[in-house]
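User: structure tokens for this one?
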Amino acid sequence: MFVIIGYIFMSACIFGAYAAHGGHLGVLWQPSEIVIIFGGGLGAMVVAYGPKLKDVLKATPAIFKGSSYTRAFYLDLYALLFEILAKVRKEGLMSIEGDVETPDSSPMFAKYPIVSMDHHVIEFICDYLRLMVGGNLNAFEIENLMDVEIETHHHEAEVPGSFYVKLADALPAFGIVAAVMGVVHTMGSLHLPPSELGKLIGAALVGTFMGILLAYGFVGPLGAILENKANESTRVFQTIKVTLLASLNGYAPQVAVEFGRKVMESHMRPSFSELEEYVKSKKG
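Assistant:
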């Protein structure tokens, strides 16, 4: 929704101001130059990203959707982590072995459907709980392993955003290419009257304009959206990491969850009392 609103507002300001000063909007419609700019930019990105383009295509629809990591998601996540750690503290690590091995059929995980729908989050939680159950690694080794996995995840999640950012960087240059080609065409048409030459020169300059507008007005913001989404998903893994490590270092479940809660941004972080009430409601 915000993407569409932003595009409409930006276009109204730019083209409205141009028209208000007597500009003719029809002059700006140069399909051949748009083909040169977008075709050249996308072709360059195919060369640069190759097999990773499928990840870009898969992530693109998320641009027009809200964040999956809402306050409701984090309430579910913290409540799930609290219940797991409370069970471990009360009954021992072996008590969660069945839940960890088959989370899809676990009654404990089923109580938190918002988190359970995120396969990557559940896999991350279960993988490290399984290592904790095995008891062969200490907290320092597990933390290093978590850091490596989170870094790998973040690198993969950054690819779609990086694609759009680099495409935005390329479009102004291809706009210059379109403008230069328009000037070349104009130089070959010097036999025409001045009025016709003016139209050709104006059409050539539209290439530079379109390259810059498309880059910074339309494509660049999409890259920023996907980069923010990558950071949001990484932050989820970081809060799980901090919570599990706090428990592994001997802190009580309430304190371990509080460690994880502090990782979140303030506008997404549920309050202590809010989380406490939610955990109680799930117990009930």
